[in-house]
Amino acid sequence: MGRLSSCVVCGTFVLMAAISARAYGENPKFVIRESDFVMSQDEALKFSNEVISPILIGYAGGQEGPESLRRRLLAFIQMNKTHEISYVAVPAYYPDRALHVVAKVQPVQSDRLLLAFIPELMEWRSRLSATDFRFAVLIAFAHEMIHIELGQEKHSDKEALKDEGTAWGKTVLEIIRPLEAQGIVMLPEYKNVSSRLKALNDNYEDPRWIKTFRLP
Ligand SMILES: [Zn+2]
Disulfide-capable partner of 165 in 24, 45, 93, 210 (CB 3.0 to 4.6 Å)? Predict the structure, then answer.
């Protein structure tokens, strides 16, 4: 735990202070402008530092729960340190609010951003119990790290649905199932996604599984 804490002090969670529309210009379907901000950058950073970071660091540095989850969070912390990922606390919702996206990996020029949509995370926190919120955050970040492990951010848009199916398949099999097995409280949404995959014999390449995903 000491090692992780000191990393944070020396800037593991280096947050990009400025988010400009230009930064997202490469992907015209995904643009966040300053006019989309629903809070100040400082408020977003404060929530990220005071609520999100302790959840991620606490789990990564602890002993409880599945190692498959811990490994992804340690990778996130490590890749922040080596600048393979730039973590950004975005003071806006994901553009398509109906999708309730809390995090997304986004390549921008030579950089790879992991965006956390802070207003959506705040809503999750007000809606969920402390334990459910904690695991929702952990699963969301681990899921994004699975996208990175699979190198999916380099894929074309055509592959996006299949990529989501694969990433969620691995999220279910490697993270959600072990959490269920350990009796850690799980949200109905995760239980549902887990049983839907089970009904397809855990085959995440099944077209019926893939077509259940909507594209962000
Ligand atoms: Zn995903």
Answer: 210
CB 15 within 8 A of CB 89: yes
Q: How far apart are CA 87 and CA 63, in angstroms?
A: 25
Cα separation, 1 vs 99, in Å, equals 35
Q: How far is the CA of 213 from the centre of ligand 1 (A)?
A: 9
Burial class of residue 208 (count of CB atoms within 10 Å of its CB; 0-12, 13-18, 19+): exposed
Rounded to the nearest angstrom, the distance between the alpha carbon of 150 and the centre of ligand 1 is: 11
Q: Distance between CA 62 and CA 70 in Å, rounded?
A: 8
Pair 48, 89: CB distance under 8 Å:
yes
pTM of the model: 0.86
User: How far is ligand 1, taken at its centre, from the CA of residue 188, in Å?
Assistant: 18
Q: 163 alpha carbon to ligand 1 midpoint, in Å? A: 8
- Asked whether residue 9 carries a pLDDT value surpassing 80, the answer given is no
Rounded average pLDDT over 168-182? 96
Helix 130-149 to helix 67-81 angle (10° resolution) is: 70
Please give the Cα distance from 97 to 87 (Å, whole number): 21
Write out pLDDT tens, residues 116-145. Answer: 999 999 999 999 999 999 999 999 999 999
Mean pLDDT of the chain: 84
